[in-house]
Amino acid sequence: MRNETIAIHAGYEPEATTHAVAVPIYQTAAYAFDSADHGAALFNLEAEGFRYSRIANPTSAVLEKRIAELEGGVGALAVATGQAALHFAFVNVADHGGNIVSVPQLYGTTHTLLSHILPRQGITGRFAESDKPEAIEKLIDENTRAVFAETIGNPAGNVCDIEALAKIAHAHGVPLIVDNTVATPILLKPFDYGADIAVHSLTKFLGGHGTTLGGAIVDSGNFPWAKYAERFPAYNKPDASYHGLVYAERFGRTAYIERARSVYQRTMGSVLSPFNAFLLLQGIETVALRMERHVENARKVAEFLRGDPRVAWVNYTGFPDSPYYPLVQKYLNGNASSLFTFGIKGGMEAGKTFYDALKLITRLVNIGDAKSLACHPASTTHRQMSAEQQRVAGVLPETIRLSIGIEHVSDIIEDIDQALETACPLSRLQAAE
Length: 433
What we know:
The protein has helices spanning 3-9, 36-43, 58-71, 82-94, 108-117, 133-137, 162-171, 184-187, 233-236, 247-251, 255-268, 274-284, 287-306, 325-332, 347-357, 387-392, 409-423, 426-432; strands spanning 75-79, 98-102, 123-127, 144-150, 176-179, 197-201, 215-219, 311-315, 339-344, 362-363, 373-375, 400-403. By secondary structure, it is an alpha/beta fold. Helix 4 (82-94) packs across helix 11 (255-268) and helix 15 (347-357) crosses helix 17. The N and C termini lie far apart (57 Å).
C-alpha cells in the first residue's frame, strides 16, 4: 500500500465484537489472564498479548503498527513524548556505557539530553563539527554505540546525507539512529537509505493538530546485533531480569524494539495514554494531504521573504543555491521542508519586534501544527546552549523559525508583511539607503 492508504488503514481491521470501524479507545489499566500459566507466559515474553497498559495497549498497538508500516519497519514502540522516545532509543544501545556520535544541528532539548543528561548515566554525547560524513567518522571509536542525526535539522533545516552516514556507521559496526520528525515518512523513508532506527515526536507533523504529546521509536529490523556481540552485550548475553533470555536469539530482527519495550517501557513507564494514541491516529489519517500543503505554502512564503528588501537572509533548502538543495532532490523528491529560518534587517531587536507583531502566526515552541507557528530559538528552544553551540546548530541571535501551516498562503504572507512593516518599515529602509 501507498502512504495515503497506510495512514488510514494500516494496523486495524474492524474488531470482532462490535465491528467498530474507528479504532476503539481501550481505556484500561490491565488485562485478564486465562490462567496462571497464561499470565506467566506473557510476563516471560513467551506469548503475545496484553498484560498491563504500561507495557502495551490495544489502541497504542494500532498506532505502533501504522507508524511502523509508514516507515517500512518491523515494529514500533509508542511512548509519552518525542523526548522519551529519544531517551529510550539511546539507552537501548548504550546502557552498558559508550558514546553516541551526533551531528551538531539538533533540537535544543536533544542537545541537552546528549551533552548533560546521558553523561550522568555513563553515556557520552559527541558532537561533530558539521553534518558531513567525514566529520562524523572522525569521532567514532571502539566505544561508539550509535551515530545520530536529525534527517532535517530543527531549526537549522539542514538535510543530512543519510545514505553516507549509514555507510560510515555500518563500516564501524554501529547503527544509525535518525530523528525523522520534521520530514515524516511522507517526505523521507530513512530505512530506504540504510538508517536502522527512526524516532518521532508524534506531537509534530504526524499528529498535526497541536493537541497531543506523543513519541515513537521504529525498528528497521536490519541491524545485525548478533554480529557485534562484544559491542552490544545487552542483545547477546542472558538478561537476568528475564531469566536468562537472550534478545538477539529470541526475537531476531525485532530484538531492538522488543528490548526497548520489555526493559525500558516496562520499568521506566513513559506511557502514551490510549486516548492520546486515538487522537494521534486521527492526525495521521490526513498527514499525506497536509504535508503537500505544508510544503507548497512554505515554498511561496520563502520566495516572498527572499524577495523582500527588509529581509537580510532566508535559510530555505528549496532554493537552488542552498548547499542542501541536491540532498533535497535525492531524499525529499524536491519537497523542501515547511520548517525554515530567516532574519530581518536590524538584527535581534528588529527580529523581536517582528515576532511580537505577528497576529495570525502563533508565537510558540511547537512545530508541525496545521497552524503556522513562529519561534525565536535563541531565547527559547536553544536557550540552554552557549552562543557558539547555537551558531553551530544553525541558530543566530536574530533567527526566526517558521513552521508554515496549511492556512491560505495569502493570509500567511499578509501577516508576515504587516509584521515586517512594524519591525522594519520599508520607507525607513529606503531612506537609510
